[in-house]
């Protein structure tokens, strides 16, 4: 009897020590994909490392856009922090570092799929603004700041991949973009040209043509489809039984938010410019 208890206790202890699942999902991760967030494709076998580097990246970028205000529990400004002793300040910083992920702005959600990660975002973080800020930086500098992440797709919300649920989510997301502009006493519709970008993974219930047809029917009247040069892109991400929706601009300009391609494009352009300068110098030296 005692050996059985000891064996059970050992297994329990081993389970408590385990920090990650086989797909790289941490044990504190959400059980279900939920809310606004970012889909991330990464190198197979590097899911755990990708989650870690994306936390660091997102926290850094979010701190620039939405600085965390230091507020005391009484709701007063923490400007009095300078009166704290060094020991108290260290304790305060340590307590912030130990704050569980559930209280922070980003949380990894379990996908149970290699190469696929979903990190949800809490207000005030806007996943679209977050990702655009990052890809703009990669496009300008060529520095991806990540090793294993490839493509990032922000979604402003998620729902069940059923037509009724998808309609409600699309109407909610579309409302903030496809709206009438008011000038003086009159409201005027600003016609937008859009394209639907659909990606379906591990889902067979709804067909691609049916999804595109329904999403297009949910766009308010007066706006036009433009396959070649759209102003905005409606991103529809369907993964298993979950659907995510967002609206972005410059999707093709930023290589469909593939940071690896953006970084390679920048570096290739730099090499080409360097070669051109070398050729010009050689021509000048010969003349």
Bin the strand percentage.
Answer: 15-25%
The ordered string of helix (H) and strand (E) elements is: HEHHEEHEEHEEEHEEEH
- Write out the strand line-up for the largest beta sheet, numbering strands in chain order: 5-11-10-8-9
Largest sheet: 5 strands, mixed
How would you sum up this structure, described in words?
The protein is of the alpha+beta class and 287 residues long. The chain has 2 domains: 22-66 and 86-155; 159-253, 2-Layer Sandwich (THUMP fold). 40% of the residues lie in helices and 21% in strands. The protein has 7 helices and 11 strands. The protein has helices spanning 2-17, 47-65, 86-97, 127-141, 163-175, 208-218, 259-286; strands at 37-42, 106-109, 116-121, 149-155, 157-160, 180-183, 186-189, 193-201, 224-225, 232-239, 242-248. The chain has a 5-stranded mixed beta sheet with strand order 5-11-10-8-9, covered by helices on one side. Strands 2-3-1-4 form a 4-stranded antiparallel beta sheet. Strands 6-7 form a two-stranded antiparallel ribbon. A hairpin with a 2-residue loop joins strand 10 (232-239) and strand 11 (242-248).
Features:
single chain; about 290 residues; alpha+beta; 4-stranded antiparallel sheet; about 40% helix; THUMPD1-like; RNA binding; THUMP domain-containing protein; THUMP_dom
Topology readout:
Blueprint (H helix, E strand, L loop, with lengths): L1 H16 L19 E6 L4 H19 L20 H12 L8 E4 L6 E6 L5 H15 L7 E7 L1 E4 L2 H13 L4 E4 L2 E4 L3 E9 L6 H11 L5 E2 L6 E8 L2 E7 L10 H28 L1
Parallel strand pairs: 8-9, 8-10
Antiparallel strand pairs: 1-3, 1-4, 2-3, 5-11, 6-7, 10-11
Helix pairs in contact: 4-7, 5-6
